[in-house]
Amino acid sequence: MKRNLAFHGKTKHIDVYHHFIRKLATDEKIMLKFYSTNEQIADAFTKSLSHAKHQFFKSLLGVCDFESRGKF
Question: Global pTM?
């Protein structure tokens, strides 16, 4: 049986992290919490969003608008 080692090398860390996180959750050292798409604040940094959703996430992060006071 031939294995694609390049593919395996890129996905092996996923297996390691999966089992590590699962063990922590089982041992109740961490608690995993589900967040819906509307609560994923990190999307503001990783996705192209509508203006309204961008403004919403910006307010959750506490980011304010910058007002230019003229030329520097």
Answer: 0.48
